[in-house]
Structures are given as C-alpha cells and as structure tokens.
Amino acid sequence: RRVEDRDGAAILAVAEREDGAHVFATADRKHDTHAVQLFLTRVMDWFNETVPDEKFTKAYLRSDNAGQHFKNRYSLRFLTALFVMYNLQDAAWDYGCPGHGKGPWDGLGGMIKSWLRRTVLAMGIDEVDLDAKDCYERLKQHFDSDEWRKEHEDKTINQIVVHWVDEASIQ
Q: What does DSSP say about strands 20-26 and 90-95: parallel, antiparallel, or unpaired?
C-alpha cells in the first residue's frame, strides 16, 4: 500500500503476517521492484532475528497486480533467489484479481494514511514537517509501541513493526 505526503516523498509498504504487519517508510519515490525486494528481505531477516529458534522453510506472498513492483520478471526472479537466501523448501507468489480489492492489508494501509492525516491536522502549522523521515518517526512512536500492542492484543493485527529504509539502500 502506498501513502505519500504532499511532495510525494513518503512511501509506505505494508507486509502482513499472521498477527501483525511490517510497515516501511522511505523517501524513495519509485516504489518499484527494487523497493519490494528490499522490504521482503528486511521482513525475512526480522523473522530470523526475532524467532531464531524456528526455522522458516516456506514463504507465501500475496499482492495486487501492480506490474511496476510486483508482477514482473524481476520480482519472480527474486522469488527464486529467496530459496537460496533463506534455504527455503517452498515459495509462492499469489496475485489478487484486478478490481476485486487486495485484502486486509489495504485496510491497514488506509488506516495508517488516515492516522497520519489526522495527526497533521491536529498539529500547529509550525509543528508540521511532512518529510518521509518525519512520517516514519510518527508511525514508529505511535504504532510500534508497547502501549499500542497492549490496546490491540485481542485484535487480528496486534503488532505493527515500523522500518525506515534510506533511499540509497534501494538499488
């Protein structure tokens, strides 16, 4: 899910997992396959670091039909690279039907976008700095907190991990 500020600087991609989500903020405006590959690598690395005792052998990805960052030969080649990078036994990439919605991650992306807008409207004009890094810091402080997790422990998505990705990292 892509969310931009008024200058088109902040982009957020949301990757869903069983009980939580990973949100990525970056100043990169391309939002292309290179960004998606880096985001997926960061999610896989996060799982390996956070749950080191569990060995992940399968990766199942679901996304929309956006050709510029998901449905293209580069992303499919990257899917095969995941086998080697993470010693996977199985991986699949499922593309949703065009025009039929994308699932709960769109609702999550919409909620994040709405929250960012509401916080900006509540601030004084001298407090507003809407660059990508500012969006990241606001999201991290609010959603990636023990307080938010406690308030949402009975919800389907009860954890949101917020990541900053520098433009230079996306190649």
A: unpaired
